[in-house]
Amino acid sequence: MRLLTPRNHGHAAWVYTSLFGDGLVDGDHLSLEMRVAAGATALLSSRGNTRIYRSPQGCRSVLSAQVEKGALLVLVPDPTTCYAGARFEQHQDIHLAPGASLILMDLVTTGRRATGERWDFAHFSSALRVSREGRALFDERWLLDPAQGALSERLGRFDALGTVLLVGPASAAAREALAERLGTLPVTPGAPLVCSASPIGSDGLVLRAAATSPELLMHTATDWLSFLPALLGDDPWAHGN
């Protein structure tokens, strides 16, 4: 894995991960540790989708981040896409100091849709923990495994799943607006997009979405995060991968 640091017009440090061969193969194990110093802002993204190829023995990705007082971490990688036969475990552990902020986007999409491949991987598990001063603010683990039943049947019409997490003072105005906006959305049977918003303590919000296409999910998530360019001083979505 390479770390790229493109220039931007804002005040934040931008880092993009780039994988050799554009994905993970059997036996790969990535581990990334980062620290955002007090008062600083950092953006961590990726150069295109993280593709997980057939991996009988499995592969793994681990991220550990420390965000100091008054700092902001923006974690917005492109979607993870698991191909047929892939086995993948993802762990993200983020520690926030008092007054620190986190903006996180985590998207998962089906495999090679053009060839009819839908949720044909062997195993995908994800663990996300966000804590402040040693106390958990958000601790979620989920598993997609055909051993529990055919995934394409269980996920129905949906080809993409996403979570957006907003915590801390940097996103206060956006959280309020998004909570109000999603709280008034009607529930329509058979809709191509299903969304929800739930508060996390006194200064957090988790947004979730299931979409019938990766493109619709990405459009929805970036729309939710449309406040980022003003916050960062530059537009991360305008910088092509």
UniProtKB/TrEMBL annotation:
Keywords: Chaperone. Signal peptide: none annotated. The keyword Ribonucleoprotein does not apply. InterPro entries: UreD. GO terms for molecular function: nickel cation binding. It holds the Pfam family UreD. PANTHER family: UREASE ACCESSORY PROTEIN D. Belongs to the UreD family. This is Urease accessory protein UreD. It comes from Stigmatella aurantiaca (strain DW4/3-1). The gene is ureD.
